[in-house]
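Regression check, adenosine-5'-diphosphate case 214:
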Amino acid sequence: MATLRNAGSGAIVSEIAAVIVENRAYLSEIDGRIGDGDHGVNMAKGFSRAAERLAGRETSLAEALDALGQVLMSEIGGSMGPLYGMMFIETAEAIEDAETIDVAKFASMLRAGLAGVESVGAAKVGDKTMLDALVPAVETAEAAAAEGKDFPEALAATKQAAIDGRERTRDLVAKIGRASRLGERSKGVLDAGATSCSLIVGALADGIAARLDR
Ligand code: ADP
Ligand code: MG
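Current build output:
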């Protein structure tokens, strides 16, 4: 069974940060259609700060995820700082004592991250938020673990579930956050947080897939 070594895998977080920074303008543009247009700016600021602090350090995946979470939590405003901050802090905590990460551990770290988001905000699936990408990703990872899928397959399915969830936000009416003020007019465009979340889940899955020991 393929596994990821926790030690030395912190660079995955820098790769996630690079994807967010690359998509800064895109994420703000999406947020600008039904929000205030700052999502890419907020996200890129937090993720690039975390990447700067991790640069040149040999860290475990748990340490790097926690460092990212702490920066988002304490230094980034908007809805996203606390939501993603808690997501990464809880994800990190779920694996802090793990030497290796397998499919089941991957699923449980994502589940812990979701619980972190839910501890901060009151959104549910269907409200047109980051949860519309995150919840299907968590459920898909858990199903993969239960079915005994191999790790590469589980990672690919989880990444795809987040993408599919993001795509479904196009048809949703926003029920929470700034975009909810638009009511029916929030329909027809993607949700910014679901878009960033699908990028994060995808980059995490890719980063793990590239480092699996067999
Ligand atoms: P702000 O709304 O303060 O401008 P951002 O633009 O950074 O913050 O983030 C907007 C995103 O936050 C939305 O697209 C949505 O996905 C997400 N969001 C807002 N409120 C919640 C919540 N309670 N739970 C989960 N996600 C939320
Ligand atoms: Mg915004």
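Comparison notes: Residues 103-120 form the longest helix (18 residues). The beta strands are 4-5, 100-101. No diff flagged against the previous build.
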